[in-house]
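Consider this pair:
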Amino acid sequence: MRIEYASSTRSVREENRVYGDMFSHGSHVRSSVAERMQQVGASARERIIAAAAARWKVTASECVAAQSVVTHQPSGRTLRTANSQPTPRRLSSPTSRDQNSGSVHFIPRSIPRVTWSTRPMDRQVRNGCAGSGHGFCRHQRVSRARGKLKSVDESVLSDAPGVVRVVKLENAVAVVATGTFWRAKRALSRLQPEWDVGAAGTLTAGSFGAIPRGPLTGNAW
């Protein structure tokens, strides 16, 4: 299984019709996203069943999927979902046969946790650090929206132990070091990157607060 970060840009461009509101807020996630996640899982299951049925040249209604195995019920043939070809993503999205909460089943085993490494920003840093060999990477990015890295003096790390490389990205800087993660962390703390924060650099809590108060201070009332 490969985890891919859903494109928020695509969702917004299509008026949130693709993935809905892509946000999380404490326990609100359970109530607001649970049904959507059930739909995602059901859609994936139906695609895998359709792929297996196409391979066997049978109808999808004769097949069921459970515990990562697709079974053709009349013949008893089975196929691991990872081996179901053609690729399920090439198939059209079928309608799930399970439409109610009574058909929900818990996964009987643990699965790897989805980590932050799937985020586009972390993927960009990881790609930038590629070719530096095995090591530990620590990065810092600009704190303002649309900000960019202006400059950074990496000569201050000339005597830093284990530092392999300083990676400069458009809006971040990273340090790759060998041995331990703390080497990369301490080396990064010695850097003093200069950021170009643009127009966002002039924003303050006061300016944000003035936005909703603005209409109330005029003669609109």
User: Anything to note?
Assistant: Residues 8-97 form one domain. Strands lie at 63-66, 69-72, 77-80, 136-141, 148-151, 163-168, 172-177, 194-196.
